[in-house]
Design brief:
The structure is a homodimer. By secondary structure, chain A is mostly helical. Chain A contains ten helices and no strands. Chain A folds into two domains: about 45 residues, Orthogonal Bundle (Arc Repressor Mutant, subunit A), CATH 1.10.10; about 150 residues, Tetracycline Repressor, domain 2 (Orthogonal Bundle). In chain A, helix 4 crosses helix 6. The interface between A and B is large, with 42 and 42 residues. Chain B binds a DNA duplex through helix 3. Chains A, B: Keywords: DNA-binding, Repressor, Transcription, Transcription regulation.
Chain lengths: ~210, ~210
DNA sequence: TCTGAAATTATACACTTGATTAATTAGCGT
DNA sequence: ACGCTAATTAATCAAGTGTATAATTTCAGA
């Protein structure tokens, strides 16, 4: 007849835990499985508590999407290092096609969220921001790398290269993360670096060394 | 007090209508909005009837996914025409980055389904089949096109090119279909053809003519 | 040590969902 | 024209959903 024991937690911690539990639920059970009760259970908390930290379930999911995307881009960007622009670009590519960015769990969460973008304005806005941020990152690296090589590109060409490279990286990321195939046997990093170099008109052998 | 009038329909028609209604629901309301009642309403039918043609809602959704993917690949393949292998490859690319393949509605449905693949074995199997079919199509076209040009590729190289081209097309398809940006101003077909040509080591100007 | 405010739980509600079943209707074969 | 089978509707159910609120517990500050 006694209530379960509990501890007070700072707001930031509880919000973080709830978001983490939401992402876990989505990864394992899909978006439909991320019910208020399931999330609360995984966070070691009672369903009602969620409402103290998030107005809606909708708000909770949106917040989870925001942190997920922001973390994802941060992980990719972290692979850049701090060398030349060309080596930073190579680093971004490496990070994009290897764990933890390219990963089944990550893809599952991304896919679940993407499925909501079209019919949910709140999710659409969050998506747009993340997409923009990633393509800006790519475009900047391309511009700096080409300038560094003494082959500066026009704004239009920079935009075109941004579109193509973004598509190429996204596609490879999905393909590898999905990974029904035995990508383990294949050197995905080399494939990614070589194809990007080819698109940029850089000698693949040279780019590989970066 | 009279019941609503109705008409008997052959099994194939009803199944088709129900699947179409399911896809419409998903496109407009997302997967969560594709309830039994919503689908029935759009099909001009009563909820209970669905169970006569599909064991589960799960089976209905899986069937919708199967026809969706199969139609999508058929639409892309229809762009190939029946000329040389190189021109068929160019046709596939054109079709992949223009409507009705590259299209907001199509992407929305695809995204909704993709979000379920990881947590639903039935959907996973359907996905695998469609993915396999599309990459086989690309690999075959690449092999034939390169052989036709007197530059036959090894199996390993063919596989590598298949991976890269598939990624590139998928990525472009998503980017264009999402279309938050003003892709209307940009010649996406030219971008797609040029980048594929570059990856294949073919002169873009030549490929563009195909 | 005690008290009050904040955090957390417990309980309940209204609603939607997918599923089930019996009653009714349509339309083909005879 | 008519009956019979299959198709369709109507009505209902149990389970699960997000949400609301009151009762309880924790814990910092006096």
């Amino acid at each position: 007849m006694t209530r379960r024991a509990f501890h007070h937690q700072p707001e930031a911690v509880r919000q973080h835990d709830l978001i983490a539990a939401t992402l876990d639920s989505i990864a394992e059970l899909g978006l439909a499985g991320a019910t208020v009760r399931e999330v609360a259970y995984r966070a070691g908390v009672t369903p009602g508590l969620i409402r103290r930290y998030f107005d809606n379930k909708e708000k909770l999911v949106a917040a989870a999407y925001r942190t997920f995307i922001s973390d994802l881009i941060a992980m990719a960007a972290a692979g850049c290092g701090d060398g030349s622009a060309l080596s930073r670009l190579a680093g971004l590519i490496r990070a994009s096609v290897t764990a933890p960015v390219a990963d089944g769990r990550t893809l599952s969460i991304w896919a679940a969220f993407i499925g909501t973008v079209h019919s949910d304005p709140l999710m659409a806005e969050t998506h747009r921001e993340g997409y923009q941020a990633f393509r800006d990152l790519i475009e900047r690296l391309v511009r700096e790398a080409m300038a560094e090589r003494g082959q500066p590109v026009s704004p239009a060409e920079q935009r075109r290269l941004g579109i193509v490279l973004n598509a190429l990286l996204d596609g490879l990321w999905i393909e590898i993360s999905m990974g029904g195939d035995d990508f383990a046997e294949i050197d995905v990093v080399r494939i990614a670096l070589d194809s990007v170099a080819t698109v940029l008109g850089i000698d693949p052998a040279e780019f590989r060394e970066e």
